[in-house]
Design a protein that fits this description.
two-stranded antiparallel sheet; Serine Threonine Protein Phosphatase 5, Tetratricopeptide repeat; 2 domains; disordered C terminus; 220 residues
Amino acid sequence: MLLLYAAVAYLPRQEFFDAYQIPGLEAAANKGDIAAQSELANRYYYGIGVKTSTKEFLKWAHFAASEGDAHAQTLLGYFYMNYTRSHKEGLYWARKAAEQQWPRGERFLGWLYSNGIGVEEDPAKAVEWWMKAAEHGDEGSALNLGNYYAHGSGVPQSYEESLKWYRVAAKLGSREAKWRVMKYNWNAFWGDEKGAEGALSRYDGTWGIFHTPNGGIWKD
């Protein structure tokens, strides 16, 4: 089973980072500040500086999403898909965010296609949306593409393309992608004639475990 990334976690904007600014956020949100509404939705969803509250999350997320805030739209998509199983509603908001070229929204929509949640399973469509998200700087989508090319899901299997996308993800800050590229370089150092294929084919999909050239297992 492929390990794919769909998480939409989002750090608060710098000016909103102080957890004690919740009253100020609420004051701004009540005046129609879309950024503040989106931030409050994020805070109540993840419990950042406040207790998680589905009621408060939905209130502020719908306010912001209806005004076009892509992050709030993505959060709503994730919520409806994963918690209430309202797939039609979840897909609606996921598409709204993705169509605005919001990277997390594009990644999430790709994940829905990859798993057939709310839509017919379509690996090629998943790749299409992850390509867009990766081009917009989303490390999780680049990592997903690396996984898909390694296993030939939705695309022709290509270890060279897989390694290319792992490198893209690594440059975007993905720790796991850096780890996989490092393992490829380590494998190449030991003189595996198959190059990228020899390195990536040894990866068994388990975090922290990689099959070494001599057939053993190296645990990170």
